[in-house]
């Protein structure tokens, strides 16, 4: 039997360990200007060593001589205990961070700030809009709870993607949902029937089309709702007294109403039975399958175009994201330069009051250790902020040097540029440049652009001229926009036209770019009479 014996083994291995300071540097570099300001606000609340310079208060360097004399006399009167930390020359070590303060003059002119009223309201979501309508109805507790449950399962487009069986199982499993106001819990069949009534109720709410399971049902619900409203408004004959001076107004109005009614009825038929043909945009085949006249099919298709395939998007729109550029590309004395946007940024400094606590003899040991740790944390943060600024500035300078033609002429002059190339030029890892340009924006003569916009792969031409993929996709789109709708270009023809411009590209690549831009195929783009 083997005995347990202690043994010593040597093992050599390499490990890359991220220190807290390095982790903070990486996270600070990835922040944009707005996020950085929020992060600094949070750090100032947590770390009392950090102070913001008040521009309205005179700088402390105006009183530096007086403070130095007072500190010198205090130090001569009482000799401080020897401490490695206290022996640091704060005047030189904190030269950029202590009073009179670390400050960079803003290079942007004063701009008009957004009105405070822009922050007072919150947009209404689809769930809020539907809940408001349910609250205005007189419903029993069970039906109202089931309807709210259905509303909570709608996606952003307003569709109900879950099946009735899945809704039934989830509703019965949800605590407090299946029970009514009197504590009675309906059975399995009763719950499914209740959910069906709730789904039907939601489908009759505004906007029309919510609660549908698919596109066909969504369009059919909208057509049915508009048909019902149409019959309520124009169901009866027109008033015979409503005529014009020539007595022809009533006949013309009745003809228009009948034409509109017929278009809605044909549209309902197409959506119900011939939706695949509608997607192919073949009016002749569509009219033949629906057994209607081509002009009636055309009117129905034009009416269907007015419907909303995503009715929930009008309430679930993504809110516009506030952007503040981190840099400004400007031309001075005929040369393009980079200016960092530091408007509204905090001007940080280390607290002199806490510095004096470190050298005071009567400061308790625990307090002194806490202040030391806070000093280290504050200094690390300020160094990381300065490192972030330096990295972004150097990256922007390389972008400006390589993209001067774009800044002067526009998108057609954009040159291909890789993150790896910029990283090698400024002497950092490509991941550092990737973080430096992520969610960062620059104000240029061509608009406010994300820094990632300037990085694009290239397609090589026969003479070695490189074309960025962004420009290449734009050329493909432009050719398609200028084509004859009755005879659209095929992918082979598009590739041949681009090759004639000196761009080596294959049909498969053109097809890939066309699909990336959500442009239909040749057959789908062709307009048939």
Describe the overall structure:
There is one protein chain. This protein has about 525 residues and is an alpha+beta fold. The chain folds into 4 domains: about 20-105 and about 325-455, no CATH class; about 125-205, no CATH class; about 215-240 and about 245-315, no CATH class; about 460-525, Homeodomain-like (Arc Repressor Mutant, subunit A, Orthogonal Bundle), CATH 1.10.10.60. It contains 22 helices and 8 strands. A 4-stranded mixed sheet has the order 3-2-5-6, covered by helices on one side. Strands 1-4 form a two-stranded antiparallel sheet. Strand 2 and strand 3 form a beta hairpin. Helix 5 runs antiparallel to helix 6, helix 12 crosses helix 13 (about 295-305) and helix 17 crosses helix 18. The radius of gyration is 35 Å and the shape is extended. The chain starts with 19 loop residues before the first helix and ends with a helix. Mean pLDDT is about 75; it is low at about 55-65, about 100-120, about 180-185 and about 460-465.
How are the secondary structure elements laid out?
Elements: H1 20-30, H2 33-46, E1 50-52, H3 64-77, H4 90-93, H5 126-135, H6 141-152, H7 164-173, H8 188-203, H9 215-234, H10 249-273, H11 275-280, H12 283-290, H13 294-305, E2 327-332, E3 335-340, E4 348-350, H14 352-359, H15 365-402, H16 404-409, H17 419-426, H18 430-437, E5 441-444, E6 447-450, E7 458-460, E8 466-468, H19 469-481, H20 491-500, H21 507-516, H22 522-525
